Amino acid sequence: MPGRYGTTDSDLEYGVPAPITFSHVGSPASQKRSSRTSTWSRLAMIAVITTFSLCFFLQPQHHPSLPFSSSTTRQRLLSPAVVTTQRHHPMPTLPEVYMTLLSSPDTPEYYLSTRLLLYSLKHDPLTRDDTKRSFVVHVTPRTPHAWIETLRSEGAFIISTPLVKGLPTSPTEARYEDVYTKLAMWNMTQFSRILFLDADHLVVKSLEGIWGDEAGWEESGFAALGASSSGYLEKADYFSAGFMMLRPNETTYEELLEVRGFNPIWREQNLLNKYYHSNGHQPWARLDSKWQRIQPTYQHVMDGIHALHEKVWKDRVDPELRKLWYEKVVEMETFYTRRAGEHSDSHKALL
User: Which top-level group of life is the source organism from (predicted)?
Assistant: First the structure.
């Protein structure tokens, strides 16, 4: 179809001028004399247009249909592989956040580990997310008020919801009593995507890059890792609910609350595995196994894994891993003590 100025849409797409034609009218004699001149003129004009076109296309250009900035190199601009293989996703209009759940006051180690997780994701220069994504602590009426105030003062964003109840249960440890409340995340539609981590994670490398993982854009809106120390099991269809990326959706939230017919021994994990079964209508996607491991050892640190999921205060943990955890706790406390001192000095200077 014609474009705005008479050129075709295809002409405008690549900035190519519309075809140019020439005509000459005169006497037969003059036409004969000028035929050679016209031929040379046309050849000269073709040469000029060709030179102009080459100069135009060999310069780095920005075009809304191409995924390049103005600083793109000539080689990348001319490479069709870049254009045809790169997937594009809409920029989120709502915040992307990290999140954990802290509810039961029965295990204070979870509170300490939540503080360390906050420090790792927001403050530690070796592991923080430099894009300034918020760290959200999801709390409940059972969460001690003093814990909430400390976490808020250290930089956490606090969201409180009622406990999610009425789902199947079985006699398990008290620490699993509140885990169904994780499902409330799917109702937090003020966020575009959430990376959820159980509080007992030790982050040893930045997780900033996980937001670009293709699995995080799965149509079902859900990605996770296999529930094993190897992280990724190609043929397995069971994931851990301790580390997962999700897109909140009210309809999904309502459907999750209706799921039944699963073994409740692992509560929310088995519920989610039933809902996001790979053969179902909402199949889960597998995140890259480099991001996280469960049942970790110090070798996983050496291998470059980014986050380790373990209750390191327990005896069965690799001693080197436990040592690293306590070193990071000391580092965190030193950071907050120093920051509090600087704040106090600044306050005194104003008096």
Answer: Eukaryota
Task: Tell whether 265 and 297 lie within a shared domain.
Answer: yes
Do residue 24 and residue 170 come from a single domain? no
Whether residue 73 lies inside any domain: the answer is yes
Are 204 and 76 in the same domain? no
Give the pLDDT score at 176.
Answer: 74
Q: Give the residue numbers spanning the domain of 267.
A: 96-334
* Segments of the chain assigned E as strands: 96-102, 135-139, 157-160, 193-197, 201-203, 222-226, 239-246, 285-286, 292-294, 307-309
How far apart CA 60 and CA 73 sit, in angstroms, is 6
Going by the DSSP 8-state scheme, the letter that residue 264 receives in this structure is G
Give the Cβ contact number of residue 204 at 10 Å: 21
Q: Is 304 helix (H, G, I), strand (E, B) or coil?
A: coil
Structural domain count of the chain = 2
Cα–Cα distances (Å) from 107 to 69, 112, 113, 171, 233, in that order, read 50, 10, 10, 18, 31
The distance from CA 302 to its chain's CA centroid, rounded to whole angstroms, is 24
